[in-house]
Design brief:
Blueprint: E1 13-15, H1 48-52, H2 83-92, E2 98-100, E3 104-108, E4 113-116, E5 121-123, E6 156-160, E7 177-180, E8 189-191, E9 195-196, E10 207-209, E11 221-226, E12 232-235, E13 243-246, E14 253-258, E15 267-268, E16 294-303, E17 307-310, E18 325-331, E19 340-341, E20 344-351, E21 358-364, E22 367-376, E23 385-391, E24 394-396, E25 399-403, E26 415-418, E27 425-427, E28 430-432, E29 439-441, E30 448-450, E31 453-455, E32 483-485, E33 488-489, E34 492-493, E35 505-507, E36 510-511, E37 518-520, E38 525-527, E39 549-552, E40 558-561, E41 564-565, E42 575-578, E43 584-590, E44 621-624, E45 627-628, H3 681-687, H4 695-701
Parallel strand pairs: 1-8, 2-5, 3-6, 4-7, 5-20, 6-20, 7-21, 14-15, 19-21, 20-22, 21-23, 22-24, 22-25, 23-26, 24-27, 25-28, 26-29, 27-30, 28-31, 30-32, 31-33, 32-35, 33-36, 34-39, 35-40, 36-41, 39-43, 40-44, 41-45, 42-43
Antiparallel strand pairs: 8-18, 9-18, 10-17, 11-16, 11-18, 12-13, 13-14, 16-17, 37-38
């Protein structure tokens, strides 16, 4: 397993002082429920109120807009650029209405983008994957995409002319196809000059004291952060006899040690490389630069005399000793552009992006729904679907697959959540065939990643079948309080390259330890983790670096509750726990690059929620009620009963679509650990049995990614 370097800056955040106008958000009252995490998560790890507000839940879900703006747009044809026509239709559309794109192939020319810069929906006439009469993409045989007009008669395809094709390694410093939010089409985000807090903001509180309330407005979004100004050499929890570059409470950790340089260090003091903190996803141009690694976006509910109150609790403390501060968030390259709200993209396929297919930059309550994105080459610091300074945005029913060049370096990440993005919801979606199925870099807190299907990650740099990470909240430091619930993934992991991401929760996931066998179209090899194919190199009994829960060094205060880990009957040669390595249910404290060191504190745990705190080294990793297929048991220190969900009191609506689905579909304490779905002709042929009990995976099993069997 390796975690290569990815550096790049797109859409720099710049300083700006003037205030922005408030926009209306219509909140709907939800029923009051008791804390489902009580007795399971320590208070400092639980963000359940924020999780219940993730995405558009607090305003009744994604709206179904019913009034069309103008005539249905049709493609110009012959590869001519459609971006101006689409942008003109967006600019002319009334708030809360929708622009409709016909079936057929639209073209966005190289260097052009479309900005959904107002509260409207851009809606296609259907995604292409699984559509009647549409040939699928077949990477194994060198396919380059869907056919051209006029054969595209059942779906809406938007292509980048001259963009990425399979095997290409090109990328532009522009957003490709669609930018949801912002006004300049490039994903820029601006911040006001910072206002300092006058007293510490405690986790769980909703009100802060500030030096001035001037420039802040009820209903707007702000960035709450602190500057990691007291990083220093602390006693190492990772390397014996060394010190590590951390804050005194170990909440901010950079992978460096002193006085010597070991192979696992990103930066050292005792070697040739000085300690530096690069701005991978930066706030370039703003006063705080890139040391504001702990942050979260908030919405202002009220303003008092020297106080600002938010509509959701603060998730982690912000301390005046570390320059706690608050800033307005703007869209575009200057403060003249207010943040965009309620912008949506639906029902289409996006192909050949050479940056992001979809970027939600400086957006609040924005969404993408029922969209396929495929054959892209990302522009380094962004994913194919990128959330940048996004507040309560939602990704619903998305199918992301087939990176054009699935190698390390930052251009092959299906999903990225970055730059303070908070309380977002990625749900019921599919992410496959990329270097990294997702990353989270310098994001805020309170996001929910739920009921998604993650599979077939491939590291094209490797010819021995390695992958990098499964579902995770890492690849740069600072992201905190993410909930992973109900997902299917070959691995749940973290990435140690750029530092720690504390307070992550994994709840009721099915983590199999193996990718579904597939063809690596980059190296032209078959990959089958369970059979150790291709079977060259690697370590342990298996050569592909297969693992279950892989928690890297400096990843403190992670919680794993009610998960099912491994695959029944396939765990021969596996261990229950190893400190760094692979082929184990739990792989903890390891680094990359063959580093022999490990972080024993990542595994240290007490077994009961009440024994865990973040104020010391007590219980960095909490395990409760997990079932694994090495011991074939609930092999945890204690196994209390767990609720159905940590973020919703009712079954998500997609469990009622199709037929034969049970919620919760993962039940580590039940007689049936993982539920199955319906049996169809396609599912029987593909997987020798019924469809998956996870709706997102069942759609893939059935060959209909947008139609649930």
């Amino acid at each position: 397993m390796r975690w290569p370097v990815a550096i790049g800056v797109l859409g720099a955040i710049v300083s700006a002082a003037p205030a922005i106008a408030a926009f209306a958000i219509f909140m709907t009252a939800g029923s009051v429920v008791s804390d489902p995490t009580a007795g399971l998560l320590p208070a400092d790890r639980s963000a359940w109120v924020n999780w219940t507000k993730a995405g558009l839940q607090s305003i009744g879900g994604i709206p179904n807009r019913t009034t069309q703006c103008g005539a249905t747009l049709t493609p110009i044809g012959s590869g001519s650029d459609d971006s101006s026509a689409i942008q003109a239709a967006i600019n002319a559309c009334a708030v809360n209405d929708y622009v409709l794109l016909s079936v057929g192939t639209f073209t966005i020319a190289e260097g052009s983008s479309v900005a959904i810069n107002r509260s409207i929906t851009v809606r296609g006439s259907g995604a292409c994957a699984g559509a009647a009469g549409v040939s699928p993409i077949v990477p194994a045989s060198g396919g380059t995409g869907y056919p051209s007009t006029p054969s595209m008669t059942t779906c809406t395809l938007i292509r980048r002319s001259g963009g990425a094709v399979i095997g290409s390694s090109q990328g532009l410093s522009v957003s490709a196809h669609f930018l949801i939010g912002g006004t300049d089409g490039y994903g820029n985000v601006s911040l006001s000059a910072p206002t300092n807090l006058t007293s510490d903001a405690a986790a769980g509180a909703s009100t802060i004291s500030v030096a001035s309330t001037t420039g802040f407005t009820v209903g707007t979004q702000v960035l709450l952060s602190e500057v990691a100004s007291n990083l220093g050499w602390q006693t190492s929890w990772t390397w014996v006899g060394e010190t590590q570059w951390s804050t005194p409470d170990y909440r901010d950790n950079w992978r460096a040690q002193n006085p010597t340089c070991q192979s696992g260090s990103r930066n050292c003091n005792g070697g040739s490389t000085p300690v530096t903190n690069p701005c991978i996803v930066s706030y370039s141009g703003s006063p705080n630069n890139c040391l504001n690694v702990t942050s979260e976006m908030k919405q202002i509910a009220s303003i008092g005399s020297g106080t600002i109150t938010f509509d959701s609790p603060i998730m982690i403390s912000y301390r005046t000793a570390m320059t706690a501060q608050i800033q307005n968030v703007y869209g575009g390259a200057s403060s003249s552009a207010p943040i965009v709200s309620m912008a949506g993209l639906e029902n289409m396929t996006l192909q050949n992006a050479d940056a992001s297919s979809i970027m939600m930059a400086a957006c609040a309550y924005c969404w993408a729904k029922n969209v396929e994105s495929t054959i892209y080459f990302g522009y380094y610091n962004q994913g194919d679907i990128a959330l940048e300074a996004c507040f309560r945005c939602q990704i619903e029913g998305i199918y992301s697959h087939i990176s054009a060049n699935p190698t390390s370096g930052g251009h092959s990440y299906n999903w990225s959540i970055d730059r303070g993005s908070s309380e977002n919801l990625i749900e019921n979606s599919i992410s496959t065939l990329a270097d990294k199925v997702m990353v989270m870099r310098g994001a805020g807190g309170g996001s929910v990643i739920a009921y998604n299907y993650f599979d077939d990650s491939l590291l094209g740099d490797s010819t021995v079948g390695e992958s990098e990470v499964g579902m995770n909240a890492s690849h740069w430091w600072g992201t905190h309080h993410t909930l992973f619930e109900g997902n299917w993934s070959f691995q749940a992991s973290s990435d140690p390259v750029w530092g720690g991401t504390p307070f992550q929760t994994f709840f009721r996931n099915d983590v199999t330890g193996f990718r579904t066998p597939f063809h690596d179209y980059h190296n032209n090899i078959t990959i089958n983790d369970a059979a150790s194919i291709p079977g060259a190199g690697g370590g342990g009994s298996f050569d592909n670096g297969a693992t279950g829960m892989a928690v890297a060094l400096a990843e403190y205060w992670y919680s794993f509750i009610g998960n099912v880990i491994g695959t029944s009957g396939a765990m021969t040669g596996w261990s229950f726990h190893v400190q760094g390595g692979s082929n184990a249910i739990w792989v903890t404290g390891g680094s990359d690059g063959g580093d022999p060191g490990s972080d024993p504190e990542v595994w240290s745990q007490q077994g009961t929620a009440g024994a865990c705190t973040d104020g010391s080294d007590q219980c960095p990793l909490l395990r409760l009620s997990n079932y694994d297929y090495v011991t074939n048991s609930l092999n945890d220190p204690s196994n209390p009963a767990v609720p159905n969900s940590f973020y919703t009191s009712v079954a998500p609506a997609f469990f009622a679509s199709g037929s034969g689905y049970t919620w919760p579909w993962v039940n580590a304490q039940g007689s049936t650990k993982v539920q199955s779905g319906p049996t169809t002709t396609n599912c029987t042929a593909n997987v020798s049995g019924p469809c998956s009990g996870l709706p997102a995976k069942a759609r893939v099993d059935n060959g209909t990614p947008f139609v649930q069997p």
